[in-house]
Amino acid sequence: MSHTHEEWTESNLNHYQSAHSSRTKSERIRNEADTLMANCASKTQRSQQEAFNRLGSRIEDCNSWRADLQTELDNNIRENGLLKETKSELEHAIAETERPLRINNE
To answer: pTM to 2 decimals?
Structure first.
């Protein structure tokens, strides 16, 4: 089965056009893939930066709360010490009034 020169030329031209069309489509798809990958990388970078910023802010909040709690704890410890001191003074004052009260009641 032999082909004529015209058939061979037409077949060859069809193969060339099909290959050209495939190459063009492949280039377009590759360019779209490159664009999508760049967009994805950019979004990922932005998301990671936003998460980093939120975490940094959260750490600052936690440190601030920790400092506030430590201040309150220190104040409570100091106040507790003052209350113990006052209790001791009051107990001593009560003890000092018991003897005169006993003598007065006799």
So the answer is: 0.57
* Contact yes or no for 21/13 (Cβ under 8 A): no
Task: Name the residue among 71, 50, 69 with its Cα closest to residue 58.
Answer: 50
pLDDT in tens, 23-79: 999 999 999 999 999 999 999 999 999 999 999 999 999 999 999 999 999 999 999
Residues 6 or more apart from 3 whose CB is under 8 A from it?
Answer: 11
User: 11 CB contacts (<8 Å, ≥6 apart)?
Assistant: 3
DSSP calls for the chain: ----HHHHHHHHHHHHHHHHHHHHHHHHHHHHHHHHHHHHHHHHHHHHHHHHHHHHHHHHHHHHHHHHHHHHHHHHHHHHHHHHHHHHHHHHHHHHHHHHHHHHH-
**CA dist., res. 94 & res. 106, Å (int):** 18
